[in-house]
Write a structure and sequence with these properties.
The chain is an alpha+beta fold and 593 residues long. 27% of the residues lie in helices and 25% in strands. The chain contains 16 helices and 24 strands. A hairpin with a 2-residue loop joins strand 22 and strand 23. The radius of gyration is 31 Å and the shape is globular. It binds one RNA strand of 77 nucleotides through strand 1, strand 2, strand 3 and helix 2.
Length: 593
RNA sequence: GGGGGUGUAGCUCAGUUGGUUAGAGCGAUCGCCUGUCACGCGAUAGGUCGAGGGUUCGAGUCCCUUCACUCCCGCCA
């Protein structure tokens, strides 16, 4: 028997009636009636109401103990009167009459209360994270995270995957995010980098013949934070498989996600079989490669309308003749909405930095008419054409944006969310998964105007890979895919290019010479020359999965010890100054400003 | 790097048009209270109104600068 307890604070019930027991835990709450004191004792497992009255000589001492003092009590389990049973508590049918107590640890005055569900400033929560983590909601989020990771591990093992660990100290690579660098003492002037992902290692594991790999892998990227993006570090379920095609990866991952989300959430899954949306279609219909399919609003291209003679909307017509495009969002049955609704959307669009969202509603009084500020510019014939292009009916509204493709896509993507939330079109009780597939291999860099890899440079191009037509690189698609859930990008993966010759050619298009590739990706390219199996994989983000399942909007709510937005750990004071001797040993000197 | 929001007691917040001594709830301390589960009642302590500067007879309130936290853009193959 433990020195500290016979039971935990979540397990006593009527079965233990009249037993003498020991509990240890924190004082969660006291209700002091003067000659009678209720004291809720809390540990990881739950709460137990303890009670003591003045007939016990220790009463005055117990009464004075501050909240969050760690105590051990010994006492007798009693059945509560029916009218004093607490149905919310697991242990609510009993209480423990305190006979003896011992203080195991004192506490200073608390910087934040533990028992309340109130929200607190981030700064104080992060500084006193060990207190924050005692609180019910975040405590259970962290437990959920642990259970999710355990479940994933056991599922992956069932599927025949084995977990292998990869190095944390590795080499810097030119593609992708900024690296965290670690100076090498034994190799003066040289640096390790922390892995942005174990990308090359997992491919090397395939070349080494291990067939099915997974890892709950830490990834390090020195980029700025967002609500759904921790600064510095995060975790991926890293997966790689040999002798597979895209379909084989999809089958494993869909199975895993279905089981996972059914087990850990009561929300409904919109699709049991994840829809597959080509990248180009996603960008057209949703303006984004991470569409939220709970949102029914669809974008259509109506550029051709503004090349017609019977349209007098000169601003758009001029822009279109200079190469701009026009796309629209259709909302159903909104023609009777008040003017303030439409103006609100237009105002929002201007605040987003655009020139606004033009709109009109379609009405029918003997003939088709367009109601709204720009309605007068469209003929009846023209309205029929627009209705055909957008699947609109009488009573619907068309919102339009005109401009450069990339700007229109972005504005309308945000407008989909904005309008849907204004019209309450999104069911928060649903998970809607989809695959986004057929990503382009290359894109034009907006700044340099040169061709660059749009995603992973190691992806396998689609088509006849032995006779690939490289004359128009921007047309090339890759076996590259993302999983998106409720508008959140959960993972990204690809079938890899295991042909070194082809890889050199693709790198060449992006401006990397054979020598550069040999130098920067030596581990990979060398390995691929010694018999690499066709292989592919994916890497779902663990933190975001937990966010979805915990129904949290911020990644810090599912991270035990997160950093703040400036990538500082307020509890541990990281990053911090270091001793000059440490720098000297590492051959580092600080640059003067 | 840029834009928005926030900053008042240990914590969560209120504070009107610029006007006398800056308030409430929780927490802390002290007292009363034997069936509460956000127990109740009374009292006390607790403030560089984020910081600095300015306007004004007078600034928590208006202006400028700056700092911290946060959300977004850039960035994140």
């Amino acid at each position: 028997m433990s020195k500290y307890r016979t039971h935990n604070c979540g397990e006593l019930s009527l079965k233990n009636k009249n037993e003498t027991i020991k509990l240890s835990g924190w004082i969660n709450k006291k209700r002091d009636h003067g000659n009678l004191l209720f004291l809720d004792l809390r540990d990881h497992y739950g709460l137990t109401q303890c009670v003591i009255d003045k007939s016990n000589t220790i009463f005055k001492n117990v009464e004075k103990l501050p909240l969050e003092t760690v105590i051990q009590i010994e006492g007798k389990v009693l059945e509560r009167d029916t009218d004093t049973v607490n149905k919310i508590l697991k242990t609510g049918e009993i209480e423990v009459v305190i006979q003896k107590y011992k203080v195991l640890a004192d506490t200073k005055e608390l910087p934040l209360p533990i028992f309340s569900d109130q929200e607190y400033a981030e700064e104080i929560r992060l500084k006193y994270r060990f207190l924050d983590l005692r609180r019910n909601k975040i405590h259970s989020n962290i437990v959920l995270r642990s259970k999710i990771i355990s479940f994933i591990r056991s599922e992956m093992q069932k599927y025949g995957f084995l977990e292998y660990q990869t190095p944390i100290l590795t080499s810097s690579s030119p593609e992708g995010a900024r690296d965290f660098l670690v100076p090498s003492r034994l190799n003066p002037g040289k640096f390790y980098a922390l892995p942005q992902a174990p990308q090359q290692f997992k491919q090397l594991i395939m070349v080494s013949g291990f067939d099915k790999y997974f890892q709950i892998a830490p990834c390090f990227r020195d980029e700025d934070a967002r609500a759904d993006r921790s600064p510095g570090e995060f975790y991926q379920l890293d997966i790689e498989m040999s002798f597979v095609e895209q379909e084989d990866v999809f089958k494993i991952v869909e199975g895993l996600f279905l089981n996972l989300f059914k087990k850990f959430s009561s929300k409904k899954l919109l699709h049991e079989k994840f829809p597959r949306i080509p990248y180009d279609e996603a960008m057209l219909k949703y303006g984004s490669d991470k569409p939220d399919l709970r949102n029914p609003l669809i974008i259509s291209d109506i550029t051709q309308i503004f090349k017609r003679e019977d349209v007098n909307f000169e601003i758009f017509k001029n822009l279109v003749s200079n190469g701009s495009i026009v796309r629209s969002i259709l909302t159903k049955n909104t023609s009777e909405k008040p003017r303030s609704f439409f103006d609100g959307i237009d105002k929002w669009a201007k605040e987003e930095g655009s020139s606004g969202l033009a709109y009109f509603s379609i009405e029918n009084s003997n003939k088709l008419t367009a109601k709204g500020p720009v309605g007068k510019f469209f003929s009846e014939e023209c309205l029929k054409e627009i209705m055909k292009l957008t699947n609109a009916e009488v009573g619907d509204t068309i919102f339009m944006s005109c401009g450069k493709k990339i700007d229109v896509e972005k504005l309308l993507s945000n407008a989909r969310n904005k309008i849907a939330s204004e019209l309450s079109l999104i069911d928060e009780n649903i998970f809607s998964f989809c695959w986004v597939v057929d990503y382009p291999i290359f894109e034009i860099d907006e700044i340099t105007k040169k061709i660059k890899f749009s995603h992973n440079p190691f992806s396998m191009p689609q088509g006849d890979i032995d006779n690939l037509d490289l004359s128009d690189p921007l047309k090339l698609k890759a076996f590259q895919y993302d999983i998106v859930c409720n508008g959140i990008e959960l993972s990204s993966g690809a079938i890899r290019n295991h042909k070194p010759d082809l890889m050199y050619k693709l790198f060449n298009i992006a401006g990397y010479s054979r020598e550069t590739v040999n130098e920067k990706f030596s581990g990979m390219i060398n390995a691929l020359s010694y018999g690499a199996p066709p292989h592919g994989g994916i890497a779902p983000g663990i933190d975001r999965i937990v966010m979805l399942l915990a129904d949290e909007k911020n990644i810090r709510e599912v991270t035990m010890f997160p950093m703040n937005q400036n990538a500082q750990d307020l509890m541990m004071n990281a990053p911090s100054d270091v001793d000059d001797n440490q720098l000297k040993e590492l051959n580092i000197s600080k640059r003067k400003k």
